[in-house]
Design a protein that fits this description.
With 310 residues, the chain is α/β, with parallel strands linked by helices. The protein is built from 14 helices and 11 strands. It has a single domain, classed as TIM Barrel. 52% of the residues are buried. It holds the Pfam family NMO.
Length: 310
């Protein structure tokens, strides 16, 4: 077994956190990650409801016991009802990412949760350190969904050199080799998203898992056009990494206005709809249960790290 601050603090068997992917990480996926020895995080996107969080948390607990919940910090400034719903579930971890979490950290701590934030540069680190988070997730631009612009390995090194907080790595980690690499660099674990997106336990469009399986690591684009098309008010500094399709090839460099992008968008058409996924897409080659993915990554990391224990 791999023993790190993350496994000890959370009482988990493997140093893997399932990313709280909005619209994809529901109760089943979250529960299966926890059942396999990691900790799954429920993705409570801005459009989630109190009822959804309660129902999906119950599903996750029935399958895997403990869970975490991820929230988008910037959206809480307008309405923090989802934070109330999250703390009511008393999760092991509450992720407050993309924005200054300072007003919300005390409430999460009062519920007994550890608080983490995904960060994309050292400036983000200083903000969340001052807010009192318990650990940080260094999220590189290889990650799927909304992220920053620095690669995972350079960012991870920079963050490790800049803080005494425990650090988890995110972005491009989809095999035992990837987990072993970030652990060897000094991370306490990995935040896994894309590797789980072809699992049958995900929620979201039925065509998304096969689209990911068919994609290579070169088949992603960092873009804001899907947010604009769907009127998602993400702050401008965060684009999202998604699979390329006809829509991105047509509109990515056109400078079209929101109305035009919205008219062209079709959530039911795989060639026109968003499928957020990271550069680890080329490592996802089959539709596989999430538990199998987590166990394979953990076992592969143990084999890699064992090479240096002789």
């Amino acid at each position: 077994m791999i023993d790190t601050w993350l496994t000890r603090e959370l009482g988990i068997r493997v140093p893997i956190l399932g990313a709280p992917m909005g619209g994809r990480a529901g109760g089943r996926l979250t529960g299966e990650v926890s059942k396999a020895g990691g900790l799954g995080l429920l993705g409570a996107a801005r459009y989630a409801t109190r009822e959804w969080i309660a129902a999906e948390s119950a599903v996750a607990r029935q399958i895997g016991g403990d869970l975490g919940i991820g929230l988008m910090t910037w959206s809480l400034y307008d309405d923090d009802a989802l934070l109330d719903a999250a703390v009511a579930e008393k999760p092991k971890v509450i992720s407050l990412s993309f924005g200054d979490p300072a007003p919300f950290v005390p409430r999460a701590h009062a519920a007994g949760a550890l608080v983490c934030s995904q960060i994309n540069n050292v400036e983000d680190l200083r903000v969340v350190e001052a807010a009192g988070v318990d650990f940080v997730v260094a999220q590189g631009t290889e990650a799927g969904g909304h992220t920053g612009s620095i690669g995972t390995l350079p960012l991870l090194q920079q963050i490790l050199e800049s803080t005494d907080l425990p650090v988890v790595a995110a972005g491009g980690i989809a095999t035992g080799r990837g987990l072993a690499a970030v652990l060897a660099a000094g991370a306490e674990g990995a935040w896994i998203g894309t590797a789980l997106l072809a699992s049958p336990e995900t929620i979201g469009p039925a065509f998304a898992p096969q689209r990911l399986v068919d994609a290579d690591s070169t088949d992603t684009v960092y873009t804001s056009i899907f947010d604009r098309a769907r009127d998602q008010p993400w702050p401008e500094r965060w684009g999202g990494r998604a699979l390329v399709n006809e829509y991105t090839e047509t509109w990515q460099d056109r400078g079209a206005d929101k109305a035009t992008l919205a008219q062209a968008y079709d959530a039911t058409n795989p060639e026109l709809a968003v499928v957020y996924a990271g550069e680890a897409a080329g490592l996802v080659n089959a539709i596989r249960p999430a538990g199998d993915v987590v166990r394979d990554i953990a076992e592969g990391a143990e084999r890699q790290l064992a090479r240096f224990r002789k």
